[in-house]
Each structure stands twice: as structure tokens, then as C-alpha cells.
Amino acid sequence: MADTISASVTLYVEVLDPQAMWDHAHRRYALAHLDHKIHDEAQPTRLAGELLAEFVAVCGTRKEPDIGDCLRMIFDPGESPPGILIEDSSAEVEGPRS
User: Which domain of life does the UniProt lineage start with (predicted)?
Assistant: First the structure.
């Protein structure tokens, strides 16, 4: 095996619509977790409510999203791609622009 190489990837984004960003992060979260949940035919809405509650605990509500955690949910793929070990990810929010 070759020597490992350290690298850093930086994205700068401008959040134009926090609710649309929250919706996208929620979809990614739900799709990533559906495979690990058991669907209860007797209570089809239970799973959606459970996933929403788990997501809100991490990323806040749609009305008041946690921008940093939503961005991490969107851009951090979770599982490292082949040949790469993702050591950490972070999102720093600078604040609104005037």
C-alpha cells in the first residue's frame, strides 16, 4: 500500500433559502435511514414521524433550521468513498450578509 496523503476539501456556499435547504437535508436523512427502519403496516405514518423527530433533534425545525448541521447533513456523505477515509467534517456559519 502506498503512503497515505492528507488533503482538505473546502466548499463555500451561500444559503439562499434555508427552508429549501432544510427540506433537502431532511430528504437525505430520511432516505439514508429508511433501510435501517422496520416499516409498520398498521401505522404507516409512525415511521415518518419518528424520522422527522430524529432529524429535528439534529438539524432544528424547518422554521428555525440549524444551518451548520443541515449543511453537514447535505455535504458529508457519511460513508467514506472507496480509497478515502473521511476524518472529520464541519460547517461554520458566518452570519447574514447585508
Answer: Bacteria
By residue count, the chain amounts to 98
Helix-then-strand count for the chain, H and E: 3, 0
Please give the Cα distance from 13 to 93 (Å, whole number): 10
Give the global pTM.
0.75
Give CA–CA dist 11/31, Å, rounded: 24
Please identify which residue in the block is written with the cell numbers 429549501. 20
- Taking only the tens place, the pLDDT of each residue in 56-83 is 999 999 999 999 999 998 988 778 889 9
Q: Check: CB of residue 31 under 8 Å from CB of residue 48.
A: no
Residue 40 grid cell: 409498520
Vertex 93: Cα angle to 7 and 95 (nearest 5): 145
Report the SS3 class of residue 58. Answer: helix
